[in-house]
Design brief:
Chain A is α+β, with helices and mostly antiparallel strands and 198 residues long. Helix content of chain A is 32%, strand content 22%. Classes of the chains: A alpha+beta (198), B mainly alpha (178).
Chain lengths: 198, 178
Amino acid sequence: MKLTTRYEQTSCRLELEGLPDVSAGQGDQSLGILTGFTLALAGHTELEGKREHLQALLQVVMPYARYLLSGVARPFGDEASPVLIAPHDQGHQLMLRSSQPNTEPLTLQLDDAELADLVRCLDLLRNDARVLVPFDLPQLQPLRRREVLNREPLRRRLAAPLVGVAALLLAGVAAWMVPLPKAPPASPAPVATPAKPG
Amino acid sequence: MTQAPEQRPSPLSRRGLERLDLLLLCTEALDLNGGEAMVWLSEEMGYTSLFPNRVELWKRRCYNPLRRTTRRGALVEQETDALIRILNALADRLYPMLRSLLSSAEPPEITEQRWGLFRSRLAELIKERFNLRRGGVQRLLDPVEGRALSRQLVQALAFSAGPGGFERLKASLQDAAA
């Protein structure tokens, strides 16, 4: 029996089609085998794909949103991956490569709200108890210091130590220019004469 | 014999607590009844044993080092998790508003008006509750830098909403210090 599930947000609609995996003992209403999906993003063509395309989409969009939440905008996916997402022109560029030969990649420009809608749809899918398709997604981790540093512009990162070094140098030069107090001329030390008694 | 729940120290650093309270403050700037909504949600979500009243909830938020009267020490994981879940629910309630702020499809004058209102309310709350001598607070109130930071905060709230928002936000609040 074919099953469909649908997740909708203002600018995004994701629809999954599949079957229960009877060999794994799944119930009638569980979607364990994904046969296909359609993704409609507002103002763009409707996309169709198989399980591996949805997996590739999840694997780049979810970490991209995770990093953005920490204020780090960096691309995910590379030249070889079927889906690539990168910050572009105050928004986000999603590039989808078709598995069909001689087909140009499809590039979609999303604004912040459209990306948030897409992430919400994917979150709904991942948290749907009826969907039992395993999507291999990396565990959410705190960002390491090196990754967080990238969000701070180099100028700001260097500003504090540079000001510190400059202040130290200035203080050093100023201290060097102040004349040293002259030592008082050496004078014989007064010798205490004991008072004679009587 | 019943065992008391384990009181694990929170994995959130002072910086994480700072960001968590700042995001909660943003929800108050977006919704005039945000403070009340927070207390109501805390009760609805069954956190009465952790935060029996609004004062206790308030005290936990005062671990933010940017506060005028900041509390020393650390929270336990149960408390920070509860605060993150409350924020997640608040952001979910406010999602349509967050979306309209982030959307480029809305008329620019209306978007600008909404941002102006949000920024002015946030600035009021910051001036009322935060230590204005701190560099981080001054950056939030800076006309140029504050603009970019408030957009980042609204974007963070949008990604903190919904069914996957809790885990995402919790991981983000544990980021290493820059």
